[in-house]
Structure formats: C-alpha cells, structure tokens
Amino acid sequence: MELEYDFDAIRPYNDAEMQDALKRAFSSEELRSAIALLFPGQNVDDFYKYLTSLKTIHDLQEKVVGTFFLDLLKKNGSEISISGLEGLDADCKYLFISNHRDIILDAALLDTLMIKNGFDTAENAAGDNLISKPWIMELMKLNKNFIVQRSGTKREIFEASKRLSAYIRRNIVEGRNSVWIAQREGRAKDSNDRTQESVLKMFSMSGGKDLKQSFLELNITPVSISYEYDSCDFLKAKEFQQKRDDADFVKSANDDVISMKTGIMGYKGLIHFEVNKPINDILEREILDTDDRATILQKMAAIIDREIHANYRMYPGNYIALDELNGKTEYAGCKYTEKEKAAFDEYLAGQLAKIDLPNKDEAFLRERMLTMYSNLLKNHLEAIR
C-alpha cells in the first residue's frame, strides 16, 4: 500500500526534519506570544535555543511536552495514573483506540505516561479542523501527530480515508509505530461513548477481502480514559442549548480553540488511563466465518465499546449524577458520602455559572451535565454485567 500513496502531507516529522520545523514554527509571532503566556518568565529566544539543542522527537516529547503537561496537572491539583502497560509487548505495535474526552489531552497524556513507563510514544490522529494556523500544523507534526482530512468533497474525503487507512496499517504491520485514534470523530458531548462504524470502515479500506483478518492484523487495543471532572462540561452543555434553540447553529472555529484551552488549563481531578488487552482473542472467538460484512462491523464496534466501558474508572460524581437524574439515593452511603455529594453539587453550580447565554435555561443545562456524568456509569454497569 505504501507505494500507492504519498504520506508526506499527513505523516509526523522525523528527527531529521525537527530543526527546520522548529524554525518555521518560531517564525510565527502568534506562537511566540502563546509561549510567553504558557511559560511565564521564560525568554522565548532562550526557549527556542533550548528546543533546537534537542536531537530527537522523543527528547522533545519527554523533556518539553510531557514535562509541561505533568507540571500543569500538578499546578491545578489534578492527578494522573495508568494501568495495563505491563500487558504490552515491547516488540509489538498496537492500534490504540479510545473514548474521546478532551481534544488535546487524551493523546498527549497517554504519550506522556508511556514515556514515563519506558515505552515509545504512539503516533496520534489529529483532525485538520483543529489546525487553523501553519504554526499549529508544525507543532502537531513535531509531536507525532498525523493529520486526518475532514474537509473537502465526498470524493476527496473518500480518497483521504483510503490513504489514512493505508498509513495506519503500514505503521502497525511493518512494526514502525503504534497508533492512537479516537473511537469516533469528535467528542461524545453527552459522554455516551460509542465506536463509529465509519472509523472501522476506514481501517478496513487498506485490508483484503477477509475483513476479520484485516482487523486482526491491526492489533487493536482499546484504552479507557476516565476523567473525574470534564473541564469542558459547561461548554458542551452550552452547545446543547444552542442547538436546541437554533436548529441551524454551527460552532465557530474559535469555539474549538476555547475548548482546547479550557481542556488543557481546566481542573480535571483524578485522571486514569486503562490500557486493555488487544482484542484479537475476542475477535477470534466472537466473529464467525459465516458473518457478513455488516455483522462483523457491528460486532467489532460492540466489542470495542464493551472493553472501553468495562474498564472505566468510576468516581463519586458519576454515582451522584445518576442518583440525582433518577431522583433516587440508590448509591448514597456505598458509593459516595454526603460531603462528596455537596462538593459535586457545588462544582456543577460553579460550572453552570460560567455559561453565558441570553436565554439561559439552568434546569436544562444542569440536566445535560448530569447526563454526561451518569452516561459513563450506565455504560460501565451494562458492560460488566
């Protein structure tokens, strides 16, 4: 498949390209201003000089990117953990597919945790809708992101999907790099995480006629990402009301920028990544030779969802949200205390206060936020039955 496609437009930069990419990125005054905000007290020219002293992308991720995110979490009181890496084989490459909670942090934190635990980082999928400036493209590709084309005609999107599929398969099958991608395009605003069959169809475009074998060779490994608090929950609730009140409402490009900034800087409490086992054994057992293409895609989505949902880490807020939504106290005492309930309600009130709408419907907005936190628990309980 590699001979059929030119991957240069979408692939990340390699070590040899690092210096030129840094030079191009730092020619932007916007980037220099952003660095001054993110690293107060740091001379931008000195910072650039330090970056150019690094020799590899791995060094850049370990000494700059990873350090930045870990320091940021520490400053805002968030804590992070990971389980399951011990089940990975260092000689294998994996297609990590996870639920999608934060635009930037999901992949960035997984990479940071992998580096801390002695693993090489994965290449990460990034939609071109998030790349509004040339310097953002430079930084994305410097941080091992490959670009997913989401704009263009139907034909252009189809051809881009074939190229993307070939690129992902080449990485895994040829043992080049592991890959991370979200289970769906964009975040599930209500946290009802479901794998889109369109993503699975994209994977299959580069495989042969044997669809089951096509999936087996990708070594698909679900990852469950659990945030105690979603710092963008109020923005998602706001969007729900905007779409309810205006059927033609469409987010602006600036809305994504605000979500990225809020997600990076906002308080998230406890964060846990659970790297599950590759699902090849499950696929061998549950996908039958007699299954047609539609059935295989449905089973694949259900298997990935089940693995992700079963391995969520649940927090008191999830149980509180479900009880409040149902008007019950089923989990009071066993899964949360009165003190924890009061703290969660205070948190929701603070988030609701951030929503600036002229016709603000607080009851609706609060219900939307409770639904976000309770859907995670509903899916988890269903998966572990």
Record the SSE blueprint:
Layout: H1 18-25, H2 29-38, H3 44-53, H4 57-75, E1 79-83, E2 95-98, H5 105-116, E3 123-127, H6 134-142, E4 145-148, H7 154-173, E5 179-182, H8 197-204, H9 211-216, E6 220-227, H10 233-245, H11 253-265, E7 270-275, H12 280-286, H13 293-310, H14 316-326, H15 338-353, H16 362-383
Parallel strand pairs: 1-7, 2-5, 2-6, 3-4, 3-5
Antiparallel strand pairs: 6-7
Briefly characterize the structure.
The chain is of the alpha/beta class and 385 residues long.
Q: Mind explaining what this structure looks like?
A:
The protein folds into two domains: 2-223 and 266-311, Glycerol-3-phosphate (1)-acyltransferase, CATH 3.40.1130; 232-249 and 314-385, no CATH class. It is built from 16 helices and seven strands. The chain has helices spanning 18-25, 29-38, 44-53, 57-75, 105-116, 134-142, 154-173, 197-204, 211-216, 233-245, 253-265, 280-286, 293-310, 316-326, 338-353, 362-383, and strands at residues 79-83, 95-98, 123-127, 145-148, 179-182, 220-227, 270-275. A seven-stranded mixed beta sheet has the order 1-7-6-2-5-3-4, sandwiched between helices. Strand 3 (123-127), helix 6 and strand 4 (145-148) form a beta-alpha-beta unit. Helix 1 (18-25) packs antiparallel against helix 6 (134-142), helix 4 crosses helix 5 (105-116) and helix 13 (293-310) packs across helix 16. The mean pLDDT is 95.
